[in-house]
Automatic annotation (TrEMBL):
This is mannose-1-phosphate guanylyltransferase. One of its GO terms (molecular function) is GTP binding. It is an enzyme of class 2 (transferase). It catalyses: alpha-D-mannose 1-phosphate + GTP + H(+) = GDP-alpha-D-mannose + diphosphate. GO terms for biological process: GDP-mannose biosynthetic process; polysaccharide biosynthetic process. Residues 271-321 form the MannoseP isomerase/GMP-like beta-helix domain.
Length: 446
């Protein structure tokens, strides 16, 4: 979700970068998964943002190890630095107010407090955790001590907490100094520190990324920072935030943020006699139509369709687990595969063939490579491509094509100033992405 435009023109990730781009903030340090590394960098480049670093997680281990890795990396240059942990799937429209609240929390964090940001609740929400305060907030809320973290409540308890007025939503936003959070990890999660420290120490540089070492990273427990540290620490304070905020962590939250008169429609989507429903198509050529629906989420992706009652969208992880158990590729891969030179997507697959759309950025080039098991046919549909095949170099323009025989050494380059788009037809006994032998690569990949 963070790299999609769910609520606005840019992605949630880009909206987060904009919000954290004022004078209060330093250049971002990004922690992301391997499959998102190129799209994260491409979206930052589109905004003219140069990050401090991009740390690549070898496998998802939740926020506990991720925050620790970022803190350990920052400690190498400035252990006294202030560190703001900010998830990239939040909607916070008032960036100026948010920056003001962060600035107000700096003295407490600099004095040794771990500051959690709490959101004034708008409803008795059961999908969020809460922060318990000692007393209801005043008209001019200040940084206040935290009494306890509260797990996601049932509806009755959520309503009671809302009425009491001394509970805030836990936004998962935290501010602290690097040295203070490292001290907390050392006290409350020492086993995690050993594993993540080794993963950082043994990290390798890869195309401008810092790839954490996979073996020690795999030994770190998969646990949130709340469970690992926050719920045990005794130096916590809360910075109340009364502005508009939404965690787009599920499709019901997206519906709530984008609905008009109860309907949220995106892409080629149409509703007939539907109420309180989200209909979304991620493919311009795939129309979705809802008839007589109420409280339904329906999302059509190029490779899968999700249909859920609004009350169950936080259970999508069950669907992912089911797909993984059945070996479905949709559980662990995405329709678009981003690479340092651009991206590609699969349009059709069958026995011994695959059709892809490939987009190569201006000035970019694929590696000089060959394949053991497949031949390829390239048809340029936009732009001009420079193609090398067994030593012969040829320029292809729109509506021109070339055949790449099995075993031929070949490369595709974009010498122009506009993207090149081509359709690739693969045929052969094995069509996996690992059937690549690279001879030369400007991105220094193996």
């Amino acid at each position: 979700m963070p790299f999609s435009a769910l609520a606005g023109t840019g992605s949630l990730f880009q909206a987060s970068l904009t919000r954290l781009g004022g004078d209060v903030f330093a250049a971002p340090l990004v922690v992301t998964a391997d499959q998102f590394r190129f799209i994260a960098v491409q979206q930052m480049q589109a905004m003219g943002i140069t990050p401090q670093a991009v740390l690549i997680e070898p496998a998802p281990r939740d926020t506990g190890p991720a925050v620790l890795a970022a803190a350990l990396h920052l400690a190498q240059s400035d252990p006294d630095a202030l560190m703001l942990v900010a998830p990239s799937d939040h909607v916070i429209p008032d960036a100026a107010l948010f920056a003001q609240i962060v600035a107000a929390a700096i003295p407490a964090a600099a004095a040794g407090q771990i500051v959690a940001f709490g959101i004034t609740p708008e409803r008795a929400e059961t999908g969020y955790g809460y922060l318990e305060l000692a007393a209801p907030l005043q008209d001019d809320p200040q940084i206040t001590p935290l009494v306890s973290f509260v797990e996601k409540p049932d509806a009755a308890r959520a309503a009671k907490m809302l009425a009491e007025g001394r509970y805030l939503w836990n936004a998962g936003l935290f501010l602290f100094t690097v040295k203070d959070i490292l001290a907390a990890y050392a006290l409350y999660a020492p086993d995690m520190v050993e594993a993540v420290q080794t993963a950082v120490d043994d990290a390798s540089h890869d195309l401008g990324f810092l790839r954490l070492a996979p073996e020690p990273w795999g030994r770190a427990p998969a646990i949130s920072i709340d469970y690992a540290v926050m719920e045990q620490a005794d130096n916590l304070s809360v910075a109340p935030y009364a502005g508009r905020w939404s965690d787009l962590g599920d499709w019901t939250a997206v519906w709530r943020e984008t609905e008009t008169d109860g309907l949220a429609l995106s892409g080629p989507a149409h509703a007939i006699d539907c109420t309180d429903t989200l209909l979304r198509s991620e493919n311009d050529g795939q129309v979705i139509v809802g008839i007589g629906l109420q409280d339904i989420i329906a999302v059509a992706m190029p490779d899968a369709v999700l249909i859920s009652h609004k009350s169950r969208t936080q259970d999508v992880k069950q669907a992912v687990a089911l797909l993984k158990a059945r070996g479905a590729c949709q559980a662990e891969s995405f329709p678009k595969d981003h690479r340092p030179w651009g991206w590609f997507e699969s349009l059709a697959t069958g026995d011994r063939f695959q059709v892809k759309r490939i987009v190569v950025d201006a000035g970019a080039a694929l590696s000089l490579q060959s394949h053991h098991h497949r031949a390829e046919h390239w048809i340029v549909v936009q732009g001009t491509a420079r193609v090398t095949c067994d030593g012969t170099v040829k320029l292809l323009t729109e509506n021109e094509s070339i055949y790449i025989p099995l075993g031929s050494t070949h490369r595709l380059e974009n010498p122009g100033k506009l993207p090149v788009v081509l359709i690739e037809v693969q045929t052969g006994s094995y069509l996996g992405e690992d059937d690549i032998i690279r001879y030369e690569d400007i991105y220094a990949r193996d």
